[in-house]
């Protein structure tokens, strides 16, 4: 099933350790910085794409979503940018668990060097769907 | 006639050479990336410990962020008058009180930005069919592309030049690490912007044709 989407599964190996630690360091840094975000967020620059066109860019709403996540408002965060929140939550959880996962030699996804056309189309469709939602909601 | 001995190979990128102090390795790597980026990325190991390039990125990225904050704090009234958006509402730059805190937390911020940036670039590489060597290779390229942050040492135009240099290094590095053309690597980096522009054009055409259909009927026919 996964192979038709260009994804294979292999066991984690010792050579994956350094990447796992880098991901954990980044996830840990993000978790440590989260409480500071409300203080810094008002000074974040405006989105140039939104300023030029009046429409949200595909990344618009991410800062507000992260602020909502930092308050523990998961539903509110998904409302601002669902795809970004999904990616952030998965990255944060995956990053923090990565060293233990590699130590335990858990299964890892391996993407094919050239993804099949259907997988690429699905990725683009997912991005376009998320962006259409942002435009419709007027984020 | 005796054969000439083979010229010694270029070896690995200076930052990953064993047995040398860190400062000469850092400066040699930055110099090599600015003078011959393609050979520098060709010398980048793809299978070694990814923590080494990550430390390189943390040093250069944090230094660049600190310099950027310093220049901004020193000449903010001058810059802010030139800014197109948000200048009136104070949306550019942090209040001076926040600057030391931002400097203190810059390594953590750089760590997050590097990994998120690599993930986004890798996603678009997958879309253009150019991710031939896995996420680790993309992450290494993004780390060494932070050499461009050295340009933050220049006042006034340093931050803009640093952004351009980091993008240029990323394109060259991705081309080398994933064995793809410069054009494909550039497409992966520019794809988010291109997608936005294409979708916007479609939206403008749709709205334009709808308006023409709606109001065109009211125009006098020749």
Task: Explain what you see.
The complex is a heterodimer of chains A (about 140) and B (about 220). By secondary structure, chain A is mainly α. Chain A has one domain. Chain A contains 7 helices and 2 strands, in the order βααααααβα. A two-stranded antiparallel ribbon of chain A has the order 1-2. The radius of gyration of chain A is 18 Å and the shape is flat. Chain B is mainly alpha-helical and about 220 residues long. Chain B has one domain (about 15-80, about 90-210). Chain B is about 65% helix and about 0% strand. Chain B has helices spanning about 20-35, 35-40, 50-75, 75-80, 100-125, 135-145, 160-175, 180-215. Chain B is flat and about 75 Å long. In chain B, about 35% of the residues are buried. Mean pLDDT of chain B is about 85; it is low at about 1-10.
For the structure shown, list the relevant keywords.
heterodimer; A: 139 residues; mainly alpha; two-stranded antiparallel ribbon; 7% strand; flat; B: 222 residues; 8 helices; 66% helix; 0% strand
Q: Using a beta-carbon cutoff below 8 angstroms, give the protein chain pair with the largest interface and the number of residues from each chain.
A: A-B, 41 and 44 residues
Total number of helices of chain A:
7
Topology as H/E string of chain A?
EHHHHHHEH
- Measured by DSSP, the beta-strand proportion of chain A falls in 5-15%
What percentage of residues of chain B falls in helices of 4 or more residues?
55-70%
Number of strands of chain B: 0
The unreliable regions of chain B are 1-8
Strand order of the largest sheet of chain A: 1-2
For the CA atoms, what is the radius of gyration of chain B?
23 Å
> What general form of chain A does the structure show?
flat
Q: Helix- and strand-based class of chain B?
A: mainly alpha
Mean pLDDT across every amino acid position of chain B: 84
Give the assembly state of these chains.
heterodimer
Distance between the amino and carboxyl termini of chain B:
91 Å
Largest β sheet strand count, sense and barrel closure of chain B: none
